[in-house]
Structure formats: C-alpha cells, structure tokens
Amino acid sequence: MTTALRRVIFIAMIAGIWEVTSKLSGLPSFMFPSLTQVFETLVNGLISGQITAAIGKSMGRILLGFLIAIIVGLILGYFIWRYKLVEDTLGFVVTALQSIPSIVWFPLAIIWFGLNDFSILFIVTIGATWTMTVNATSGFKNVPPLYQRVARTYGSTGFHFVRTVILPASVPQIISGLRIAWAFSWRALMAGELLGGGGGLGQLLEMGRSLGQMDLVISVMIIIAIIGTIVDNVVFSRIERNVQMKWGVHS
C-alpha cells in the first residue's frame, strides 16, 4: 500500500467519524457542524470569491514579509558569522529575540504603524527574521574549514569567496531555516489577521466566530492546513531533496 493511499484512507476514516459524530452528538450545527455542511460552506465561499479573495490577500502579505525576512536574515547572519564583535552583541540579542512569540510584537506594531496592513506585515516579517538569522549564521559557521582554505589558496576573497564557497556550502542549513521560518511567519500571519482585521483568512476566522458560523471557521482552518501542507511538502521538500541529491546525501 502506497503512502498516498494510506493517507487517503486515514483522512476518509476521520471524515466518516466526524460526520457520524456530528449527527449523533445532538449538538446544534453552529457548535458542531457536519462535514457536509462544512464542505458546502467551503465550496460556496470559493465560488463566491469570498475565500479566494482572502487567500490572495493572505498570500500576498506572507510572500512579501517572508522575502524581507530572508534578505534581512541572510545579511544579519553573515555579519554575525563574519565579525566576532557582532556575534557577541547582536548575535546574543537575536538569540533572545527568537524566543519571543511573534504575536507578542503586535501591540507594539499597532502603536508604531496603526491597525493596518503594515502591522500585520511587521509581525509576519518578525516571525521569520530571527529564525532565518540563526539558521543562516549556523550554516555559515558550519562550512568546512578545508573548503575555505582551498578557496583562499586559489585566491578567492571578498564577495567572490562568499558567493562561490560560503553560500553554496551552507545551502542545506539555509533550506532548513527557510522551512522553519515559513512555519513561524504563517502562524504569525494568521494571528495578526485574526486580531488586526484587514481581510485575509484570519479575518474570515474572526468573522465566523463573531457570527457563530463554525462551518465557516472550520472551512478556513481546512484551507490554512491545505496551504501549509502544500508549501511544506511540495515546495520546501522538493527543494530539500534537490539540494540533498546535489550534495550526494540523498539518492
């Protein structure tokens, strides 16, 4: 039995249990909607454009915030790896900041930027930046010294040394950092939209809660889970496999 078939059977079992339980529980539909009701709401939301518009808004925010986090994280990671003074000062602060949940920054974001898209973009970026910085730093530090000595022996210095030796050798660690950073930024986005409004999937969750439409809430949760699964298992897993094959770690 293939992995895909096992997953389909398992999901079908969960769906069957859910449907039967919702019918026999005696709870009102706004508290425990049936799976049929959830899928009707999901399909209607996709057809009407309500859910698709929210998906587009959320994806636009996270892609921009994630891109900023990657750039900032790589730059900070480079300076922390390159300079001992920066490692002892900024590196210490970054490690401390990484332990702070990104949603904790939201009150500050509202004060600084107001209750708008900038606040949500800020916490999305914050959610990924520190993780990206730590993983980039670790990747740069773990480049084998032999590679560096050989490159310098052949006269590689400055940007050429970073571009041809440091970055390629640290790619596996950076890919792992991207995967973790995406997960943090995705969660930060949902929390920010849930609290801050401005459209998006998180705002749909809040609307479903305020209207007592649990079928809408669960529909959006399913969409969030599907997007997260696709990004992790299709995008990052494929990149990771390609990198491993290139480096001879995976056949």
Automatic annotation (TrEMBL):
Which stretches are transmembrane?
A: 62-81, 93-114, 120-140, 216-236
The record's similarity note reads:
Belongs to the binding-protein-dependent transport system permease family.
Q: What topology in the membrane does the UniProt record assign? A: Multi-pass membrane protein
The record's listing under CDD domains reads: TM_PBP2
Q: What is this protein called?
A: ABC transporter permease
Record localization = Cell membrane
Recite the UniProt keywords alphabetically: Cell membrane, Membrane, Transmembrane, Transmembrane helix, Transport
Task: Just give the chief location class.
Answer: membrane
Q: Which InterPro entries match?
A: MetI-like (IPR000515), MetI-like_sf (IPR035906)
Occurrences of domain ABC transmembrane type-1 (ranges): 55-235
Biological process annotations from GO: transmembrane transport
